[in-house]
Design a protein that fits this description.
The chain has seven helices and ten strands. It has 235 residues and is α/β, with parallel strands linked by helices. It has a single domain, classed as Rossmann fold (3-Layer(aba) Sandwich). Helix 2 links the parallel strand 2 and strand 3. Helix 1 packs across helix 2. It is globular, with a radius of gyration of 16 Å. The two termini are 22 Å apart. The structure holds fructose -6-phosphate. Fructose -6-phosphate binds next to loops.
């Protein structure tokens, strides 16, 4: 594991964006596994800047996102599809037809999950960007008795609902279920890049990367991946 400690969020975003840009420059038709949440916003801003300056070209890139709330369609401003359009896709020269986010409005969730995995294994993710939840979740893989391999439907932990309530009008509006890429999809990525910032994430970073590998700390499975970079800033 490559553990990089930086001074602040700006440095974290710049370093993360550099790692992603390198992948895109070396393989213009690469597949990016992407995340939502507050952690990657700065990284996406840097990638937008470099794309607008003509330094990084996304025209042949495919993206596959980690997760989506169940019941929200892409027009809903709290859906992860909307977040990705708003924070990245609308501002770079990626072909939106090549961007994939689980369909939270799918009538057959099992079929949606199966098709999502088929795509992941068919194309292969070159680099998977991850944030980490305070309970150690990656994607929406919450602490459990076991690791789930496949893309699947999850019931969100109370702590995740509370953490995400800041984006909704009231906590009651936060969806209680979601679709997430499973650990198989995440671990199949050639490279994994996890970013985290803030004092509140210090403990979970310690547990996930320097503690025992356990499904009670889902991100700890990443210790078994052979190409993981963690960028952490206490600020
Ligand atoms: C988002 C995702 C989540 C977040 C995690 C951290 O697509 O999969 O696992 O990465 O909840 O969120 P932030 O970055 O908002 O602290």
């Amino acid at each position: 594991m490559n553990f990089i400690k930086v001074e602040n969020y700006e440095q974290l975003s710049e370093q993360a964006a550099k790692i992603i840009a390198d992948v895109v420059i070396n393989k213009p038709d690469c597949v990016l596994g992407l995340a939502t949440g507050s952690s990657p916003v700065g990284t996406y801003k840097k990638l937008i800047e470099w794309n607008n300056q003509g330094k990084v070209d996304f025209s042949k890139v495919m993206s596959i996102n980690l997760d989506e709330y169940e019941g929200l369609d892409g027009e809903h401003d709290q859906s992860y599809r909307y977040f990705m359009n708003d924070n990245l896709f609308n501002h770079i020269n990626i072909d939106k037809a090549n961007t994939f986010v689980p369909n939270g409005k799918a009538t057959d969730i099992d079929a949606e999950c199966k098709a999502y995995d088929e795509r992941i294994y068919d194309v292969g993710i070159d680099i998977q960007l991850l944030g980490i939840g305070l309970d150690g979740h990656i994607g929406f893989n919450e602490p459990d008795e076991f690791f789930t391999k496949e893309t699947h439907k999850v019931v969100l932990d109370e702590s995740t609902i509370v953490a995400n309530a800041r984006f909704f009008e009231s906590i009651d509006d936060v969806p209680k279920t979601a679709i997430t890429m499973g650990m198989g999809g995440i671990m199949s990525a050639k490279k994994v890049l996890l970013i985290a910032n803030g004092q509140s994430k210090k403990d979970i970073i310690e547990k996930a990367f320097f503690g025992p590998i356990t499904p009670k700390v889902p991100a700890s499975i990443l210790q078994l991946h052979n190409d993981v970079t963690v960028i952490f800033s206490e600020k």
